[in-house]
């Protein structure tokens, strides 16, 4: 029995080392993404003072502990992250490398949430649940998504690659790729690119079950059959 415990501990330690090495690679990619996506970033010394990056780095570490079944240490570091940076990223959440947390204060990411690489999360964003239930209950956010300050994305929904979520919006259903969702509750604004006879690019927008008048042409509903026909998502 004792030999089995030692063997189990050895396997856990091996897993931890492997995951920490992976976390180190992910942190490097997080650095590069921050430099590319934060226009206020001027010098490498800012990594030491960037609360969003430092909280993300700590998440990478305690996520490795959590996945290697050192859950007490994982939750301890998770709690410290909340105290130091006011950022609440559950140890079980899955964040791909190259995520940017800008400012960070008030950010909440639930345990079953998934965030794709290239995504930018501003302060006050919540990736939360709509109901108290077991299993998948938090959003899956695609790659290269921007979620504005104070936005709430709730439930086991999918935010498509390249989507944009406006500040303070409340999103409770799927958002298609490259679409923009704004408002409370959020409305989907579909973006599509057409070309006229002179090959000039015209961006066309249509708010589902509503209109956005900004001098640009509107897309007919038939052009985007995959989009929800309801105004509220």
Quick summary:
This is serine O-acetyltransferase. The protein has 233 residues and is an alpha/beta fold.
Question: What is the architecture of the largest domain at the second tier of CATH?
Answer: 3 Solenoid
Distance linking N and C termini: 55 Å
Q: How would you write the strand order of the largest sheet?
A: 3-6-9-12-14-15-16
CATH class membership of the largest domain: Mainly Beta
- Average pLDDT, rounded to a whole number, is 81
Percent strand: 15-25%
The stretches of 5 or more residues where confidence is low (pLDDT under 50) are: 192-233
CATH homologous superfamily title of the largest domain: Hexapeptide repeat proteins
Biggest sheet layout? 7 strands, mixed
Cα Rg: 20 Å
Q: In one word, what is the shape? A: globular
Percent in helix: 25-40%
Kindly state the number of beta strands. 16
Number of helices: 3
Structural class: alpha/beta
Q: Write the H/E string, N to C.
A: HHHEEEEEEEEEEEEEEEE
Number of domains: 2
EC number: 2.3.1.30
Protein name: serine O-acetyltransferase
InterPro entries: Hexapep, Hexapep_transf_CS, LbH_SAT, Ser_AcTrfase_N_sf, Serine_acetyltransferase, Trimer_LpxA-like_sf
Catalytic activity: L-serine + acetyl-CoA = O-acetyl-L-serine + CoA
Structural description of this entry:
By secondary structure, the protein is α/β, with parallel strands linked by helices. It folds into 2 domains: 1-84, no CATH class; 106-233, UDP N-Acetylglucosamine Acyltransferase, domain 1 (3 Solenoid), CATH 2.160.10.10. It contains 3 helices and 16 strands. It has helices spanning 2-37, 51-67, 71-85; strands spanning 88-89, 94-95, 100-101, 108-109, 114-115, 120-121, 126-128, 140-141, 146-147, 152-154, 158-159, 164-165, 170-171, 180-182, 187-195, 201-207. The strands form 3 sheets. A 7-stranded mixed sheet has the order 3-6-9-12-14-15-16. The chain has a 5-stranded parallel sheet with strand order 1-4-7-10-13. It has a 4-stranded parallel sheet with strand order 2-5-8-11, with no helix packed on it. Helix 1 runs antiparallel to helix 2 (51-67) and helix 2 (51-67) packs antiparallel against helix 3. The longest helix is centred in the first third of the chain and has 36 residues, at 2-37. The protein starts with a helix and ends in a 26-residue tail after the last strand.
């Amino acid at each position: 029995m004792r030999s089995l415990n030692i063997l189990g501990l050895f396997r856990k330690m091996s897993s931890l080392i492997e995951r920490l090495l992976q976390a180190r690679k992910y942190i490097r990619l997080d650095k590069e993404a921050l430099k590319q996506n934060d226009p206020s970033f001027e010098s490498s010394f800012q990594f030491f003072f960037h609360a969003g990056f430092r909280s993300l780095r700590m998440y990478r570490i305690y996520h490795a502990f959590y996945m290697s079944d050192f859950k007490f240490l994982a939750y301890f570091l998770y709690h410290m992250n909340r105290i130091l940076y006011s950022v609440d990223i559950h140890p079980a959440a899955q964040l791909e490398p190259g995520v940017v947390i800008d400012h960070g204060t008030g950010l909440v990411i639930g345990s079953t949430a998934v965030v794709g690489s290239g995504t930018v999360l501003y302060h006050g964003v919540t990736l939360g649940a709509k109901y108290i239930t077991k299993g998948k209950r938090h959003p899956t956010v695609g790659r290269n998504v921007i979620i504005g300050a104070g936005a709430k994305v709730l439930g086991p929904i999918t935010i498509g690659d390249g989507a944009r979520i406006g500040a303070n919006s409340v999103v409770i259903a799927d958002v298609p790729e490259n679409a923009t969702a704004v408002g409370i509750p959020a409305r989907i604004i579909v973006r599509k690119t057409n070309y006229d006879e002179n090959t000039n690019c015209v961006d066309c927008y249509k708010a589902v079950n509503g209109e956005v008048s900004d001098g640009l042409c509107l897309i007919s509903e038939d052009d985007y059959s995959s989009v929800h026909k309801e105004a509220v998502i």
